[in-house]
Design a protein that fits this description.
This protein has 171 residues and is an alpha+beta fold. The chain has one domain: Peptide Deformylase (Alpha-Beta Complex), CATH 3.90.45.10. It contains 3 helices and 7 strands; from the N terminus they run αβββββββαα. The strands form 2 sheets. It has a 5-stranded antiparallel sheet with strand order 1-2-3-6-7. Strand 4 and strand 5 form a beta hairpin. The termini are far apart. The structure holds nickel (II) ion.
């Protein structure tokens, strides 16, 4: 398994819309394992393929707490088929926007259908942190970031900060 470099805001790659995966094979499973390894190393609880520069519709999640046994989840071609009307608020962060956190309101429950790591069709009714995490990661597949759900003023501030940091790094 390999830890891959993360794509960081304001890299335009993060705005790409990822393409559906046509075949679940050993190469794809290796990629899923690399994504998990990269996520654990960061550390984070979710990672979409576009965050390592690959515009493919796959994401990984592990919500196990520190000291608990790992619970790796792989979602291939995930699709939200229904969302609840009731909403919940979580403080979100993103490995592509390091050290920035903000509260985001989203549907409290979602039903997501997807293929698992073996390519088998699955469906999950998610609530709590998993519901938020799935929506955050599926947004990535559509070029959407969690800062798109906060106020314009806050978003402009964080983009400006990261643009400045990227420029000083490039010098
Ligand atoms: Ni993210």
């Amino acid at each position: 398994m390999t830890i891959k470099p993360l794509i960081i805001l304001p890299d335009p790659v993060l705005r790409q819309v990822s393409k559906p995966i046509e075949r679940v094979d050993a190469d794809l499973q290796r990629l899923a394992d690399d994504m998990l390894e990269t996520m654990y190393d960061a550390p984070g609880i979710g990672l979409a393929a576009i965050q390592i520069g690959l515009p493919r519709r796959m994401l990984v999640i592990d919500l196990a707490k520190e000291g608990e046994e790992k619970q790796p989840l792989v979602f291939i071609n995930p699709e939200i088929v229904s969302s609840s009307e009731d909403r919940s608020v979580y403080e979100e962060g993103c490995l592509s926007i390091p050290d920035y956190y903000a509260e985001v309101e989203r549907p409290a429950k979602v039903t997501v259908k997807y293929l698992n790591r073996e390519g088998k069709e699955q469906s999950v009714e998610a609530d709590g942190l998993l519901a938020t995490c799935l929506q955050h990661e599926i947004d990535h597949l559509n070029g959407v970031l969690f800062i798109d759900h906060i106020s314009r003023l806050k978003r402009d501030m964080v983009i400006k900060k990261f643009t400045k940091a990227a420029k000083s790094k490039a010098l």
